[in-house]
Fold this protein.
Amino acid sequence: MADFPPVPLTLEGSSLLHQFFRFDWKSWRKTSATDREHIATEAIAALKGMERAQADGPVQTALYSQLGHKGDLIFVHFRESMEALNQVELDLAQTEFFDFLELRHSYVSVVELGLYESSRKTYEAASAKGFEMHSAEWNAEVEASLKRGAEAMKPRLFPAVPEAKYLCFYPMDRKRGEDKNWYTVPFAERQRMMHLHGLIGRRYGDVVKQIISGSIGMDDWEWGVDLFAEDPVVFKKLIYEMRFDEVSAVYALFGQFFLGIRLPVERLGGWLEGKL
């Protein structure tokens, strides 16, 4: 692999936007009951329109009641493009409900599947055919491989927001320090470590739905991680076990963690009355 590109191939899918809001309870309590009812009804209708493109379509916007001091509400949006995400922001901003929201944090990314295993096979296949690296023939071979992979992985690249009760979101980087630098580790060694890292996640596959999104060049961290489960303790167990894995123990940096409880759109009115 020494003569092959050091960058693993990736497949990209849905564009993601996470929004973390503080709700202005003080102003809400000062609003008349009639106005509160009107605002809640309008917000629910607007969010219902964002939730699914069609009545029987997949969930593409989900709402969560956030735990802790970092905020009150989390909005998670999955869309087919960045333009569609921006339209969601604009649509939400047109509602009176938005006047009570203070955006405390957001995260922009795109669903990403890393292809360490198939990257090596693709590079070796192109080399075996005598194609010079980055030549037109080489690039065509790589593109054909990516196209086949994208078709096979379409459900994972364009997922619905899982229906699970709890959400855990956090951003992360790979270290680029003087002592430990992921990006200077040989490809084959990174491939080995990522394979072992992935085995841990697979063991939790029956209780946790994981969606990895890439954000290099899009936001402050390199990846965003969404975990969905019916039991929040599973997040602790999975992430704790992964801390002992070489990829995380030696090369990972983590940002803030955000935890939310799924709030069905139709129950937003109850939430605004202090009922989960």
